[in-house]
Design brief:
With 354 residues, the protein is of the alpha/beta class. The protein has twelve helices and nine strands. Helices cover 29% and strands 14% of the residues. Helix 2 packs across helix 12 (333-347) and helix 4 (65-72) packs parallel to helix 5. The radius of gyration is 21 Å and the shape is globular.
């Protein structure tokens, strides 16, 4: 077994969280030698699942990546998704809250990712973030990514991906960028395998919630005491599966409208349907922001893991809300596996030595 690990491409993982990227890359035949995150609970999860040879809980600004390279030798691949709140669409609704590089809590994260890239000099890197990173409102940060990659000698391919189009049971859109040294082939994204079944594409239909969490289609005695939707619980009961608060608007023909059109977040009273993938799982547990189960209850952690394609046996540490945050922040493990598989095929296959 040790021999197999020694022959696996070596990864350094940044902003690792619960390890969504690491799970996917491991499934594709990579080995994480070093993983880091600033949240101690996430680091406990990584250690509990033996996600890396070394897990360090620290501020990334204090990490000397040259020492990591000295310890583990040449690093094949750098992976990581810098904290996404500075680039999230919801940030636009927070008056007086700086975004992008100006964010006081995480604005430094993207430059630190590229400091790691400069000090480690891996053959390939994968950078992940919310789709908002690609918006015109973050042109400065996006241009930085392109210019810094070129400056360090990497050519990049990037795309906003809908994870459902690769078999993840969640219409989660994320920005991915894969860079390779300029002496290596340019990365090309794998072809999509799934599509909205309402479109005639010849691809497989989206994987639905019913397929992956249908076996949990029950309500426990404890869940009967809970009231998702908080003070709007009775309204949630009335909303059809697959709909949200917009069901109660004049535009949708509700006789006595209770909300104005687009007056709330899209996720307000949002309810899953077993007939389609989930919408994006949120990083924070909420009493009125969904998605909720179609049986009018909160989703369970084991259901969140299924929707994020995290293995059932993967052990999350912390209390319920801490586990929810870890799962909600994760990259869907299967999406990571698809990208990692293509990276391995292009750069680390037996017929191509680098």
């Amino acid at each position: 077994m040790q021999m197999d690990i020694e022959n696996m491409p070596k990864i350094v993982s940044l902003f690792s969280g619960a390890g969504g990227l690491d799970i996917g890359f491991h499934s594709a035949g990579f080995h994480t030698v070093y993983a880091t995150d600033i949240w101690d609970v996430a680091c406990e999860t990584l250690r509990a699942n033996h996600a890396a040879d070394e897990v360090v809980c620290a501020d990334i600004r204090k990490i000397d990546f040259r020492r990591i390279k000295e310890k583990y030798g040449d690093i094949d691949c750098l992976i990581g998704g810098p904290p996404c709140p500075p680039y999230s669409q919801t940030r636009h609704y927070l008056v007086g809250k700086a975004d992008g590089f100006a964010d006081e809590h995480a604005g430094f994260a993207v430059p630190e990712y590229f400091r790691a890239l400069q000090e480690l000099r891996p053959k390939v890197f994968l950078f992940e973030n919310v789709d908002g990173f690609f918006f015109k409102t973050h042109q400065e940060e996006f241009e930085y990514l392109k210019e810094k990659s070129e400056e360090l000698g990497y050519q990049i391919s990037y795309r906003v991906v809908n994870c459902a189009n690769y078999g993840v049971p969640q219409t989660r859109k994320r920005f991915f960028c894969v860079g390779s040294r300029i002496d290596l082939p340019m990365f090309t994204f794998p072809e999509e395998t799934h599509a909205d079944p309402q479109k005639e594409t010849g691809l497989l239909p989206w994987v639905t919630c019913g397929e992956v969490i249908g076996e949990f289609d029950n309500i426990t005695e404890e869940e009967k005491k809970q009231r998702p939707g908080a003070k709007d619980y009775e309204l949630l009961l009335e909303i059809p599966a697959g709909d949200n608060y917009l069901y109660f608007t004049e535009k949708r023909g509700y006789p006595e409208p209770k909300f104005k059109w687009k007056s709330r977040y899209w996720t307000f009273l949002l309810k899953l349907t077993p007939d389609r993938p989930s919408w994006t799982i949120q990083a924070s547990f909420s009493n009125n922001q969904g998605p909720f189960h179609w049986r009018n209850r909160f989703l369970r952690i084991e259901e969140l893991k299924r929707l994020q394609t995290i293995p059932d046996e993967y052990m999350l540490q912390g209390n319920m809300k801490e586990q929810w945050r870890q799962v909600g922040n994760a990259v869907p493990a299967y999406m990571a596996q698809v990208l990692a598989g293509k990276i391995k095929e292009v750069y680390f296959s037996a017929g191509y030595q680098i």
